[in-house]
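Subject: Protein record for review, amino acid sequence with backbone structure tokens
Category: Structural biology, sequence-to-fold work with a learned token vocabulary.
Format: Residues in single-letter code; tokens as whole numbers, each standing for a residue.
Body of memo: The sequence and its backbone structure tokens, given next.
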Amino acid sequence: MEGHAIVQTRKLVKEFRMGPQVIRAVDGVNLSLQKGKVTAIMGPSGCGKSTLMHLMGALERPTEGSLVVDGVEVTSLSAREEVEYRRRKVGFVFQDYHLLPGLTALENVALPMELAGAPRARQAPRAMDLLESVGLGEERHGHRPTRLSGGEQQRVAIARALANDPSLILADEPTGNLDSKTGRQIVDLLFRLAKEEGKTVVLVTHEPGLGRRADRLVQMEDGRIVEG
């Protein structure tokens, strides 16, 4: 549904203590992200953009403020509820892929479904469909990550992120380890997921071209949103 906010933050704060010093990595952020849109978050290193993404994904707990994702008030979740939230509401795509080296491409994609308690008979067929949908042919499904190129590993990571049909996809520098051609293909795929499947995609990036292409560009400095 066009115009439906999937992510809403109000006065969101995240502080880290380093010895006697308190670092406010996210400083009173108000943000509303719409269903089916791609938002790029940009800014200098240390400006808080990855921390903000980690808060959305419940990888970090905010110090203050409100964070609602797809109707869930993330700040009020218990530790067990946070795990369920990450499994069902959020798909993560990282620069370093974070695939399990001992599992095949197919097994890496099926793992989130197994952890979420999906019927076993459904896991492999859905994993195969997801790998096909991101452009990884069946002949590669049985390969472990070390036998896949960087672009192929990132495709597996995106398929894995989609395993439990999350409403929110968080991608932290998803093209950082890829050549420019492969990076464009991965970006095209993420934009297609937003446009055709209604996923809300948040990209942390240093690439100006990607920022210009996004439906929305959010610029951060010193933990605050200064534009967008």
